[in-house]
Design brief:
single chain, BirA Bifunctional Protein, domain 2, RNA-binding, 18 helices, 8-stranded mixed β-sheet, 452 residues, 16 strands
RNA sequence: GUGGUUAUAGCUCAGUCGGUUAGAGCGUCGGAUUGUGGUUCCGAAGGUCGCGGGUUCGAGCCCCGUUUUCCACCCCA
C-alpha cells in the first residue's frame, strides 16, 4: 500500500478551513462588486507562448509546463536528445503551461474578446495560480489570487479606486495594513539622471532590498552589475530620502528637475495622494522608493500592501501597465490593477484569529432515530425544514444513540430531533437543545420557532 | 536553482552508548450505559521507523543517495 500525499507546496482544505476561506473570498468579492467590477474566469492552462517572456527570465523558470499528449518524444532527433538542453527541448515537448498570475491571461482575454468588451473594462477574477517556486512560509506552489483590473482608461481615478478597495477590504477583514506606493516613471527618471537608463531593472531590483540587506550591500550589488561609481554616488541621497510623503516628493522634484519622465511620475503621485486625501482614505499610505516589484511590465504607479501586526510578505500588490496588450497585438490599451493574495491573507487571519463566529453555514438540526420505521417517519420532516431554508440532516442509519449524539456534537449542530415509538405515536419529535440540554416534545411549528 | 534542516501510529511527539518484542497523549472503534452527547473509567485496533543502498554479529539511531518538511537566499501573493 502506498502512503497518500500531495505535491510540494499544495494543500488540502477541511470544511472548517473552507468556511474561513470563503469568508475572505466573499468579503473581497463584495467590495469588488461595490465598485462595479465584473467577474471572469480563464483556463488553468494557457499556451506556453502566451506566458513565456512576460515575467522575466526568473518567471520563465517558475512556470509549470505541461508535456504534450501522446508520444511527445517521437519527433525528437537523437542530436536534440543528446544535447540535454532543457530550455530548447521544452519547446518541442510542451506547448501548454499552468497560469503564473491572472494579469497576463487577462490581457490575452481582453485582446481576444475585444468585440464583446466595452472600455473602460472593469473585471475581477478569483482563481488559483501556480508557480514552481520553493515553498516557504506564506509561499505556496498553488495559491489563489483575487485580481481587480481596469483596462482602457489612463485616468488616475482608477488608482484612487483601487486604493479605496484595498482600504475597504482590509477594514472589513479587520487587518491593519499599510499601503506602500511608488512610481515606475520616477525610477526611470532616477536611472536617467544618473545616466544608467539601460540598467533600470538591475537598479530597481537591487534597491528593492534596501530594507532587508541595508544600504551598503545594495550599493555593492549595484556596483557588481557594472554600474559606474559616479552613478552610484548620485544615487545615494535618493535612497536615503526621509520625511513625510510631501517632503519626499518635494525633494524628488529637485533631484529629477532635468528628467521629463521623472517629473511626470512625481506629479502622478501628487495627484493620487491628493485624491486619497480628498476622499479621506483611512489606511496609511507611504511613498516607498525602494518598492520596485520584479514584474517588468509595470510602467506607472506600483502598489504593495503589508500587514502591520504580522510578519509576512506583501499580501496585496499591483500597479499600472501601459501596454500589456501590445504583445498580443492590441496597442494603446493602458491598464491598472491589483491582486489580493488570498492565501497570505488567510495565514494572517489565522495568526490573528480574526474570524467571525460562523453558524449560518452549519447544520441547524440533526434527526436522531432508532430504526427503519423512524427513519421513514423523519424524511418528510426533513423536507419540510429544508424547504423553509433550514440546514437539516439525518443520521442515515439506526446507530447507537451515543454515536448519533457524538456526531451532532462534533459538527456543533445546535439541535437534535430524537424520534422513537413514543414520538411517532404522538406525531411529534423530541427536540433537544444541545447546548442547554433542555428537551421537549415538539411539533413542526415548535421547531421553526426554536430555530428562528 | 543554491545552502542548511526535518522525516517514528490517523495527528502531535518520546525513543538512553548501536543491543532482545518501538512507546505516550490525542483521535478512532468497542465496553461500563439496549432512549440521550460533552466529563470519567476499562479495553482494542492501528508501524516495512519516508524510500533505496551501505557499514555492523546486530541499525529507528552511523554513512551515501533520493524524496519530503521547514528555514535562509533568489524571487514573489
Amino acid at each position: 500500500m502506498q502512503k497518500p500525499s500531495i505535491p510540494k507546496g499544495t494543500r488540502d482544505f477541511t470544511p472548517q478551513e473552507m468556511v474561513n476561506r470563503n469568508y475572505i473570498f466573499s468579503t473581497i468579492k463584495d467590495v469588488f462588486r461595490l465598485y462595479g467590477f465584473q467577474q471572469i474566469e480563464t483556463p488553468a492552462m494557457e499556451n506556453l507562448s502566451t506566458l513565456m517572456g512576460k515575467y522575466g527570465e526568473e518567471g520563465d523558470k517558475l512556470l509549470f509546463k505541461i508535456t504534450n499528449s501522446g508520444d511527445f518524444m517521437n519527433g525528437l532527433t537523437d542530436e536534440e536528445l543528446l544535447e540535454r538542453n532543457s530550455a530548447k527541448l521544452i519547446n518541442k515537448i510542451s506547448e501548454k503551461g499552468l497560469r503564473y498570475d491572472l494579469t497576463v491571461p487577462f490581457a490575452r482575454f481582453v485582446v481576444q474578446n475585444r468585440d464583446k468588451i466595452s472600455f473602460p473594462f472593469k473585471r475581477y477574477q478569483i482563481q488559483p495560480v501556480w508557480r514552481a517556486d520553493r515553498p516557504q512560509r506564506g509561499r505556496y506552489r498553488e495559491f489563489y489570487q483575487c485580481d481587480v483590473d481596469v483596462v482602457g482608461s489612463d485616468s488616475l481615478l482608477n488608482e484612487l479606486e483601487l486604493i479605496q478597495i484595498v482600504d475597504e477590504v482590509f477594514r472589513r477583514l479587520k487587518i491593519n495594513v499599510v499601503i506602500k506606493i511608488n512610481n515606475r516613471k520616477m525610477l526611470s527618471g532616477i536611472a536617467e539622471i544618473i545616466g544608467e537608463s539601460d540598467n533600470i531593472t538591475d537598479i530597481t531590483v537591487a534597491i528593492d532590498k534596501i530594507d532587508k540587506i541595508g544600504l551598503e550591500k545594495v550599493t555593492e550589488e549595484i556596483a557588481s552589475k557594472g554600474i559606474s561609481q559616479e552613478a552610484i554616488a548620485k544615487l545615494q541621497p535618493i535612497l536615503q530620502l526621509s520625511g513625510t510623503n510631501a517632503e519626499k516628493l518635494t525633494e524628488l522634484k529637485k533631484v529629477l528637475a532635468d528628467s521629463e519622465i521623472g517629473l511626470k511620475g512625481v506629479s502622478e503621485l501628487e495627484t493620487i495622494f491628493g485624491l486619497c486625501q480628498t476622499m479621506q482614505v483611512e489606511t496609511k499610505i507611504e511613498l516607498d522608493l525602494t518598492l520596485a516589484r520584479g514584474l517588468n511590465y509595470y510602467t506607472g504607479a506600483i502598489f504593495e500592501v503589508k500587514a502591520i501586526d504580522v510578519e509576512m510578505g506583501s499580501i496585496t500588490g499591483g500597479g499600472r501597465y501601459d501596454n500589456l496588450t501590445g504583445v498580443f497585438g492590441m496597442e494603446g490599451v493602458s491598464g491598472v490593477g491589483i491582486s489580493f493574495g488570498a492565501d497570505r491573507i488567510y495565514d494572517v487571519l489565522n495568526q490573528l484569529n480574526l474570524y467571525p463566529e460562523n453558524t449560518l453555514e452549519n447544520t441547524q438540526i440533526l434527526f436522531v432515530s432508532f430504526g427503519e420505521k423512524e427513519l421513514m417517519y423523519c424524511l418528510p420532516w426533513l423536507s419540510a425544514l429544508r424547504s423553509k431554508g433550514i440546514n437539516a440532516e439525518i443520521y442515515p442509519e439506526p446507530a447507537k444513540m451515543k454515536k448519533q449524539m457524538s456526531y451532532a456534537d462534533n459538527k456543533c449542530i445546535p439541535f437534535a430531533a430524537i424520534v422513537g415509538e413514543t414520538e411517532m405515536n404522538a406525531g411529534k419529535v423530541m427536540l433537544k437543545n444541545m447546548k442547554t440540554g433542555e428537551q421537549k416534545l415538539a411539533t413542526m411549528e415548535d421547531i421553526l420557532e426554536s430555530l428562528a
